[in-house]
């Protein structure tokens, strides 16, 4: 595919994207289906025409639809609504969390950006919408991914909505619940006898075959577009706060890309004049699980070199042992004066329960991780409890019920009579 | 509670609600915590000051928040945002469904109103928000319900967000998954050794005790307010269609109340001049499961008398064997020229899969029921395939995974190598 499309196609809809630029050496490439630099093999990122971005006004955005496409003029695809491959995710709730703040000893406003409200209930709908819209613009006619959960759900659902064939690759030992939530959409679902790493490796080989020339693997050959979708989680928070960037954000890390893109979104908003930088800047904090903490470990060891790990632990949606954007996440955290930490499985479970009990938001393990790390950051003095903070929940508790099964249950068991209710203490 | 509050309290915030009126004999009562007529024991419904409703403009609504509270001026509670007990549900997607229409032989626009997008992923967030907001206005300091699933989730989450104690009553043999999704919010959760009917009966006794004088049971003592929340599912569809009422709507029925309230919402919009009635009026269709079909059975037998049934079948959120609003649902269907039908468990499962495959919307069994009935209505000629139709999905597939477990799964199983992929037919 690369050989055909990389040389000929450019994004057919007029948008602000200008080129793909290597994050390593700065080499530039046309807007095509390419994700690595031919010169240094570094990852590619979308670069924009700054003048085009600078023409965007708050009023333009506010007049847009109540979903992430209100920011289309800041994205690499989807300017023409008719070309979108999308479930219309975004504009998920920003929930005030005074009860959580009180329990953690935070005196400033605390908010939860609850992205479980997306159509397939994770932030992946954002990145998939941008990736597949770009993919269709680029001429791809089948959509694919390797995934163990949220991404699989999102790609299969997007393909079903668009009426486009899909093929999703999963490890063969995935829990039945996670298989159902992808299989129900009716696309091809390939169970690979192997680990997630094996699945990924196979997809990396398949994408080079003639038979998959027509296929966009959302997190492989159209990855630069995919990653840009995460910027909307930065834009939205700023707009929902009344066009203000919060002093502190706490973000879960798998590849580390989400953290870098929220930071990039804030920088863009300031650069193009939509938002004023907060007086002391903003500080970006990253959350990992102890079972998969290569990025936090590198930061704590004061190095840029990520040592891959074999992931363990219940926060499976964060379990990327060799995180592609880890070094960039460390850069963003260092530059902004933030920090990273990690939470073990018990702390993650407690984080899920604490968030639910104080806000009514039921998060998957990734959200529990982020809340648990928020608590650690306050306790260790790394996070300023007197500064406004936004904590990101990226997924839905219904998808990881097993994590807290056995921990929560009925508080009373009673026979169906008033006398039994009285004996159980329900009646004074 | 009734004895104290019914005689003294009225809604403290200025709203359009005027009184509670008996649906049976028309007797009027003040806006209090009362749900049955003292004269004839009929159910009470909120009545409005029509002049107040008529002052509401489209512009007022469009300037409101992007959730159901944009219709606060048409609701019995929540006019003052500061008084709301809410997760801010509503303004869920209205999804165009051309693929589903094509499969069913519908030539006119077909839409899915997908209420799984609410915070706890069912339409119950709407009714609970109105009920608990009214309840707090009325002086209640604890929130309760009897439920087997969606309602329990919603009440517990609302109470957690508001920082108000809650007590949720469930049958003791409920599936662990449904217990977790309520217990995680940390309120009291009382498992009753008995059926849902036993749970309901006990709640009816508890509500009369001194110890529960401070407690609002959302679907008992504040039921008239609760029921009004469903109107927003009518308002939203009309607004999302560009202030137009669709020719046909297909709505799942448990108590039958949702159907009557969507119809009431359409009537109100026409009466107060916000929308023109469609040329041929609108037709309301009701969907039940074959395992619990007392309303459809009565309609088919051309009677108003609902014969209660003992519910069976997988559409548990629709399993109300003695539906309180069944006769009113029949009245609405007859008056508008609609119809009712029911679908068995296999048809419900097929409905879930059909909807997911053609729209990317993954519905719980109630949504599968509605889609299956939509298909029957087309096949039987009861529903006009050349007229615009909206079908309501009221809940989330993640909550009823068991319904389709074993039916959907991987389409291929492959070892992690290109050779294996080729042998499996993935490479031509």
UniProtKB/TrEMBL annotation, chains A, B:
Organism superkingdom: Bacteria
UniProt keywords, alphabetically: Lyase, Pyridoxal phosphate
Pfam families per UniProt: PALP
Modified residues (N6-(pyridoxal phosphate)lysine): 124
InterPro entries, per the entry: Ser/Thr_Dehydratase (IPR050147), Thr_synthase-like (IPR004450), TrpB-like_PALP (IPR001926), TrpB-like_PALP_sf (IPR036052)
Catalytic activity, EC: 4.2.3.1
Molecular function in Gene Ontology: L-serine ammonia-lyase activity; threonine deaminase activity; threonine synthase activity
Record-linked PANTHER family: L-THREONINE DEHYDRATASE CATABOLIC TDCB, THREONINE DEHYDRATASE, MITOCHONDRIAL-RELATED
Protein name stated in the entry: Threonine synthase
């Amino acid at each position: 595919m690369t050989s055909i499309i990389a040389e000929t196609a450019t994004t057919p809809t007029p948008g602000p994207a200008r080129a793909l630029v290597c994050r390593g050496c700065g080499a530039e490439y046309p807007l095509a289906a390419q994700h690595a630099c031919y010169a240094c093999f570094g990852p590619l990122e979308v670069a924009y025409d700054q003048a085009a971005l600078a023409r965007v006004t708050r009023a333009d955005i506010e007049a847009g639809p109540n979903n992430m496409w209100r920011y289309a003029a800041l994205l690499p695809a989807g300017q023409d609504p008719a070309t979108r491959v999308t479930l219309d995710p975004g504009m998920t709730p920003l929930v005030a969390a005074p009860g959580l703040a009180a329990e953690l000893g935070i005196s400033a406003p605390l908010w939860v950006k609850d992205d479980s409200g997306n159509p397939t209930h994770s932030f992946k709908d954002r990145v998939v919408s941008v990736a597949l819209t770009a993919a269709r613009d680029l001429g791809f006619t089948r959509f694919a991914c390797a995934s163990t959960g949220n991404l699989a759900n999102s790609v299969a659902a997007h393909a079903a909505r668009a009426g486009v064939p899909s093929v999703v690759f999963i490890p063969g030992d995935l829990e039945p619940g996670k298989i159902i939530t992808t299989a129900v959409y009716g696309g091809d679902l390939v169970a690979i006898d192997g680990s997630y790493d094996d699945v990924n490796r196979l997809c990396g080989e398949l994408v080079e075959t003639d038979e998959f020339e027509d296929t966009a693997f959302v997190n492989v050959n159209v990855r630069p577009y995919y990653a840009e979708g995460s910027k909307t989680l930065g834009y939205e928070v700023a707009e929902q706060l009344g066009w203000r960037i919060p002093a502190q954000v706490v973000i879960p890390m798998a590849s580390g890309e989400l953290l870098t893109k929220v930071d990039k979104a804030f920088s863009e908003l300031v650069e193009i004049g939509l938002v004023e930088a907060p007086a002391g800047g903003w500080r970006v904090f990253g959350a990992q699980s102890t079972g998969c903490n290569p990025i936090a470990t590198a930061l704590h060891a004061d190095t840029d070199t990520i040592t891959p790990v074999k992931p363990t632990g219940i926060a499976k949606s964060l379990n990327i042992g060799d995180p592609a954007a880890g070094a960039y996440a460390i850069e963003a955290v260092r530059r902004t004066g933030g920090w990273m930490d990690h939470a073990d499985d018990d702390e993650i479970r407690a984080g899920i329960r604490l968030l639910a009990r104080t806000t009514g938001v039921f998060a998957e393990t990734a959200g529990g991780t982020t809340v648990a790390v928020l608590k650690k950051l306050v306790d260790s003095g790394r996070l300023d409890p007197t500064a406004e903070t936004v904590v990101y929940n990226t997924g839905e508790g219904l998808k990881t019920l097993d994590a807290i099964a056995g921990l929560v249950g009925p508080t009373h068991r009673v026979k169906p009579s008033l006398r039994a209710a009285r004996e159980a203490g329900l009646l004074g």
